[in-house]
Amino acid sequence: MKNDTAYIRELASLAPIIPVLVVDDVADAVPLAQALVQGGLPVLEVTLRTPAALDVIAAMAGVAGARVGAGTLVTAADVTAAKAAGSTFGVTPGSPAAVVDACLAAGLPLLPGAATATEAMTLHARGFEVLKFFPAEGAGGITTLKGLGGPLPDISFCPTGGVSPGNARDYLALPNVVCAGGSWIAPLDLVKAGDWDEIERRARTAAALPR
Questions:
Q1: Is 83 a catalytic residue?
Q2: Could you say which of 56, 170, 172, 193 would form a disulfide bridge with 29 (CB–CB 3.0 to 4.6 Å)?
Q3: Which of 10, 45, 119, 146 does the annotation list as catalytic?
């Protein structure tokens, strides 16, 4: 089975920033998703970093306008669980064959992680045209993405990891960047505080970023 690249491109077109979310309490899932969607960021990546993550995905999947996916997929079992919870896409920090194969077998559209030209070329050969560039700042940031753009013009990236309000515009200005992932929109402290107004404000600011 091939990856649903069209769906990944559709997601990337909906907003310039995909919030990367860590949520401890399923009670926060619905109001958090509503704040982000109302702020103009409908594509939500819920990382599988907490015991509540799968329940959070299931709850957010019922929020009108939300496109909910699972991040930090690191095993085939993660893929199965994420799909069962209602994820409409998956995101990986790296791209071991077993995890990629599991996503393809499950029919879960994937934004696979890559940090090098070799990784990007390997994924492209398998039909992946949009990749997560991770960890963006640690892997050379804007300079590396500019370098990859010349020899790999058919690959688009979603840089994640170190993207911030201070550099997001510069990332989004690159021709091979279709969107970016960011954790500053809804950091754990604001989520735990239930500060949905501030999260919505941050979402609106991020949604207005040019690209």
A1: no
A2: 56
A3: 45
